[in-house]
Structure formats: C-alpha cells, structure tokens
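Below is how a single chain appears once it has passed through the pipeline. First comes the sequence as given, then the structure the pipeline wrote out for it. We keep one example in the README because the format questions we get most often are answered faster by looking than by reading.
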Amino acid sequence: MNLPVRNTSLWRVDGHAPDVEELTAAAELLRAGGTVAFPTETVYGLGADARRTEAVERIFEAKGRPSDNPLIVHIAERGQLEALTLPLAAEGAGTLAGRLMDRFWPGPLTIVLPVRPGAVSPRVTAGLDTVAVRMPAHPVALALIAASGCPLAAPSANRSGRPSPTLAVHVEGDLSGRIDGIVDGGAAGVGLESTVVEVVDGGTVRILRPGGVTAEALQGAGAAVLYDAVAAPEAASDAAAGQTPRSPGMKYAHYAPQGQMQLVKGEPEAVAAWIGAAVRAARDNGERTGVLAFAEHAARYDADCVLVVGSLARLDTAAHGLYASLREFDAQGVQRIWAETCPEQGIGHALMNRLAKAAGHAVVRV
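Resulting structure:
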C-alpha cells in the first residue's frame, strides 16, 4: 500500500517532568484524528483517538498491522473507564479487577473488559465484545492522554513484525513520514510490552500475554493465575492457529530482526559449543553472524557481532535491552543470529515469549 507521505513532527520533552505546554501541539493533533507516537514505561506506543475509526485506521495503515489484531486503549485516570466498559458479569470479577487496578495502575498491566457498545471504534476491538485497557506509568504518556482528552488506542510504534521501539529514534526509523508526530521523552522503562489478562471470576485471572507484571506479582495481589495456550511457558508455536486473537500480541509473529534467528537451549557449555560450530559453518558460507548472549557467557562467543542482552542474575536488564539488541543486529547487517535462553520464571517468562516470537519459534535443544 502506497501511503501519502506525512510531515512527521518531533517534540522533545523531559521524560520525568514534561511541560504540558510542550505537549499542546501533539494533543491537538490527536484530537483532530492524527497519529502520534509517545513513550510509555514499556515501549513507545503509536496513539490515535480510540473513538474515531478514521483515526484508528491510520494506525493500521502506518504499521501494516493485520486488521483482526485488537488494540490496547490507554487512559490517564480511572474515571475514563465508565465511558468505555461495562461491568464484568462473573460474581466477584469486578472486585478482583478493581484490586488489580489499585495495585498495578498506573503500570504495565492491561485488563480485558466488556466494551460499552459504541464507546470505541470497532477497529479497536477487532469485532470482539471486549476491549483491552491500561493506564501507563509514564509521566509523558499520562500528560499527553490527559491533554488530548481522548482515550488513546496505542499499539507499539513500529512497523508490524519489527522489534518494538524503546527509543524515539527507533520510531523515526520505522514510521517517519507515515505518522503525524513523535514525542521524544527518552528511553522506555520495562522494555517489554504490558501483561494482558482477563478476569475469569472473583479469584482468578488468565494471562493472555506475559509482560512487565509477572505471574508471581499477580499471585501476590491475591489472584490465582491461569494461562492462555499461546501465553503459557513453552507454548507451542501453532497454539493459536485459526483463532481470532482475544488480545494484542497473541497471534502474529512479532519482534523479528531481519536476520534468521534461532534459540539454543541447554547447559551453558553445550550451548556455547553448539553455537560456536554453527557460527563457523555460517562464516564458511559467507554469512555475517551474530550471538545474543547473557553477560555471564558472552566471552565464550566469537561471532561477527556479539551483543550482551543483560544479566541472568537481573533478567529485568535483559528485558530492557532486548529490542534494542535486535535492532542493532539489523544495523550491523547480521544474517544469522543465535540466542541463549533463560529460565521462564518472573520476567523471564515474558522475555522468552518475545525471544521465541522473534525467532519464529525456532528452538534447538542441545
């Protein structure tokens, strides 16, 4: 699709204490039906007024996003929920949802709720009777949403299938000329998208997409945790085949670098030996090679581009650096990539979920 070239404005603001006046032009664009990228505590999002179909369609066009993939609606305060959603039907479910909002909002938790008819564009819900809502924990995001007066539909601000953006420069590289503006508020925080849950009953939630709020944190808030098939640890790559995704990030390939990527799972010594042999074979074929390693093991590798994604002792650092690392492989022209894996506990569950999607679920066990 040939899109008209847009004049993409750029506003640089203080990511910790933004001046609302500096966001006035961006807010006016959103009210007028435009598309503006902005930082959240997870990744940069591409926002448009969730109530206006023509505005939401500009998100899909800019990203090249499949039309049956629903969008998350971002709000700035709890009072906006009443206009967007209906009460949960299951006994006690509303109480549990409220408790999760009290604990994790603002923050990287998205809750799927019954949508109020006509409250948002049908393009936001992809024809479902639910809407995914969250309140981001980023001063710029909250200030922009409030200034615009709009609930903002906002998927990650990247071309569909590409690694999500954690810096404004990533957004520029993917979407400049395709959107109306970018608010540069510095680096995003968590580095992985929000956790998406649905409330099953008064005591249970189901994780539809793992993310910045871990299963352990949800349990600590008094919720029993179930997993959707595609969100469970070690989920099969075809678990969602033929299904309409019930939340963002469930169905389609995401986060992929341009080079062919493979995960290698096993004891560290065996993993290093296997990757070393694969690197040598690829070099013999004239391919440029890359390894995504944890700090504890990086010195074992001799590829053209060895990137440290973070530490096994602090998987939150790996989560923060994942997408930037995948984009760096692209910048270095790497054609074959091998990545170490990590335990699927805590934030490691979300990290492995994104790594598996980036690799197209290509995993070697050694």
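The chain has two domains: 1-252, 260-365.

See the next section for the split statistics.
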